[in-house]
Amino acid sequence: MTPQAESVLELFRSTGAYLQGHFRLTSGLHSAEYLQSALVLQHPAAAEKLGRLLAEEVRKIAHEKIGLVVSPALGGLIIGHEVARALGTRFIFMERDAAGKMAMRRGFAAGAGETAVVIEDVITTGGSTRDVIEVLQASGVNVLAAGSIIDRSGGLADVSVHRVALATLQVAAHYPEECPLCKLGIPALKPGSRPA
Ligand code: ZN
Residue 146 is part of which domain span? Predict the structure, then answer.
């Protein structure tokens, strides 16, 4: 792991955003690690720093002048805004509609002749970033690259454009019946809850 990735993870640890233990994830799977990036991004100075670092990394792989930063709501809002601040571009976000389809709403517009990067807080499968990229491309926007603070896929998530992350993790998740921590008799916690 690079010194930069170490310092990013240390920022997550020191703000309680990178938890280690035994967690029951929303998916029902169990994991020894849990990332809650809202806890690091609640500190504007940390958000600004992470945005600046991520802006430098996406600039390296974009190969063209970046005109716009776009993020999927809700997780990408703060970091996308900070990346746009560092790049000096405007920032818009997309939301899923009632049918679960990613869409540009609130009067936001982007189209042919524009260049964009897509920014998320944590990439797991890359699904949200990929959906945002598809909407942009269908509108004629040239999507240059994508970036996230953390890549939890071990580098495997494919979003169809060049992608970068400040820290890459391989987070193992297990079905409860196969969970090594359950076998040790350690109780699983829902992230955000406290031990009884
Ligand atoms: Zn378990």
Answer: 43-171
